[in-house]
Design a protein that fits this description.
Length: 180
């Protein structure tokens, strides 16, 4: 992984096509909200499918109410990305880095085995709303990938730093002051 990709540093902005062929830019997608980005090998990898299925089943229902976002980047072509997204029941965007350019730019590819080309290292980044890296998970081994509970704890830690984390009685019923 690139040396500058460390907790506390700014994650690079990028644009990739989603399953509908629309270009998605990370900073625009995030809209200032904490975001989990998973970089996965693809539908052929049972570890990727298991990880994303867990997120679809147990984490996805919370996304709309916890002011956080989830994004998956895969090396699969569009149709395989659609198959993977639908197969795990995901509603969040899947972006295709079919040629692996972004993954190679981020240096999350092992290129030591020349017979098979680069082997991409499943990596999950937890980002603050300003794209600052909060935490990185190296998922080479399945147990290195964050569980749903770990994602909750990471996002709680990020959100607890927001000025409106604790309720103040002068706010009334509106939570919109939390997001300002």
């Amino acid at each position: 992984m690139r040396d500058d990709l460390q907790p506390g540093s700014l994650f690079p902005d990028f644009s990739l096509p989603d399953t509908q062929k629309e270009m998605v830019t990370l900073s625009e997608f995030m809209e200032g909200m904490p975001t989990v980005i998973t970089f996965n090998r693809g539908n052929y990898c049972p570890k990727d499918r298991r990880q994303l299925f867990n997120y679809a089943t147990d984490f996805q229902p919370e996304l709309s109410v916890n002011y956080c976002k989830l994004l998956t980047v895969t090396t699969e072509p569009r149709l395989e990305s659609i198959e993977m997204r639908n197969g795990v029941g995901a509603l969040w965007p899947f972006l295709s880095d079919q040629e692996g350019k972004l993954l190679q730019e981020l240096d999350i590819a092992d290129e030591s085995e020349h017979r098979h080309g680069p082997v991409f290292i499943p990596t999950t980044f937890i980002l603050n709303g300003d794209r600052t890296i909060y935490k990185i998970y190296n998922g080479w081994w399945y147990v290195g990938r964050p569980t749903v509970e770990e994602l909750r704890m990471d996002l709680r830690a990020i959100l607890s730093q927001q000025p409106g984390w604790e309720y103040h009685k002068d706010w009334g019923m509106g939570s919109e002051k939390f997001l300002k």
